[in-house]
């Protein structure tokens, strides 16, 4: 599993902390790209977890657990394919993206910025390589392991079926069949449709 570049995130946060405004984002609330005055925004998510959802089909690309940064890419490439939402209640800080970039320049923090963006790219590549492998079962196993590693505040609020469906787009009948067979073989344990534990996932289905 990829390690979050915490030292780079901390350096970037300390750079903007004195000028950023504290924010609270409720579960399910969208993280807006722009202020009311249409100014691009930069966010530091200190607690909670956010997810990225495509606009056209509401497919969930993935989640980012705090600490996380949002807004650098959008500042340079404002055409957006999706939106960020708070998966659980979040807290953090918000600042003008333009001012954040100025502070990054002044404090020579582009190496830390690149380090964080590289982490995001690697995370996306890992996800896409698995999802495009051609095996729906491999993709489901990959996401089941992700779900097992989610904090209880996330895992306890979403069923296994919904978690897999929103992140794959596979038919619910196929996902339900795989879940049912894994439960029968005692490879996974669930309670009230929520994942409790993975005992072992067979290589083939």
From TrEMBL:
InterPro entries: HTH_46. It comes from the Bacteria. Residues 136-202 form the IprA winged helix-turn-helix domain. This is IprA winged helix-turn-helix domain-containing protein. It comes from Hafnia paralvei. The lineage of its organism: Bacteria, Pseudomonadati, Pseudomonadota, Gammaproteobacteria, Enterobacterales.
